């Protein structure tokens, strides 16, 4: 194919998926696509902040999917521009989350995987208010409930919540913590899906039956149809499962 014809076809692209390319090869390609609205990067190689800066500067881009954003990403980003991205699906570390979200004021749907080991200490103070987000899917491991509390406060207009996680924070089996987490959302949350595994040493939870009864008797928890299930024993550890799949009547 003649180079000029190839370039013309590239410039008309609106949808692009890139697999296993280096950042240095993706950047010049993305700069040649003035009409790109959908970008899916599936890459576990080292990334640079120059690549993310290039993506954020594409004003036509509405959907951005990125696997394994954590590897080699240097923050803060150099761009001061905000993006028009409305749909973000990404796997990354919590320490980079706030910086990236600050550049995405029009985000409506956030699907984020924070399952890689990371520190949540700095992330809790960096998350911006995201008033446009209506759908949030979150997969997160080894989290403190304080981080989730901060994240929920940053999405005041959330309508759909899908939360998958693993934790050893004992506050997660306290029904009053869930009441505090979700009470501000009750007026507009249309759907809630929970699938949480809570792992503890048996000596830390001496009476699982009492924990379960307190959880099930809480009126707020009953209203949300959140269920806590009997523990499974694994040697010296115990696992409690919290689940919900509740749709509010319109």
From TrEMBL:
InterPro entries the UniProt entry points to: LRR_dom_sf
Name the record gives this protein: Uncharacterized protein
Organism: Didymodactylos carnosus
């Amino acid at each position: 194919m003649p180079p000029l014809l190839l370039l013309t076809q590239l410039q008309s692209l609106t949808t692009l998926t890139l697999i296993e390319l280096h950042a240095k090869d993706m950047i010049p390609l993305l700069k040649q696509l003035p009409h790109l609205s959908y970008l899916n990067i599936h890459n576990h190689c080292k990334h640079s902040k120059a690549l993310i800066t290039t993506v954020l500067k594409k004003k036509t881009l509405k959907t951005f999917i990125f696997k394994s954003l954590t590897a080699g990403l240097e923050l803060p980003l150099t761009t001061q521009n905000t993006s028009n991205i409305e749909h973000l699906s990404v796997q990354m570390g919590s320490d980079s989350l706030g910086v990236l979200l600050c550049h995405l004021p029009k985000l409506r749907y956030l699907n984020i995987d924070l399952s890689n080991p990371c520190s949540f200490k700095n992330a809790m103070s960096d998350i911006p208010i995201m008033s446009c987000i209506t759908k949030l899917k979150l997969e997160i491991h080894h989290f403190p409930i304080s981080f989730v509390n901060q994240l929920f406060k940053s999405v005041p207009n959330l309508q759909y919540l899908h939360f998958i996680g693993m934790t050893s924070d004992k506050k997660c089996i306290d029904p009053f913590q869930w009441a505090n987490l979700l009470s501000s959302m009750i007026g507009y949350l249309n759907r809630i899906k929970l699938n949480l595994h809570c792992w503890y040493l048996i000596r830390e939870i001496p009476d699982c039956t009492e924990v379960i009864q307190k959880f099930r008797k809480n009126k707020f928890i009953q209203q949300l149809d959140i269920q806590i299930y009997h523990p499974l024993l694994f040697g010296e550890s115990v696992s409690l499962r919290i689940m919900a799949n509740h749709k509010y009547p319109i």
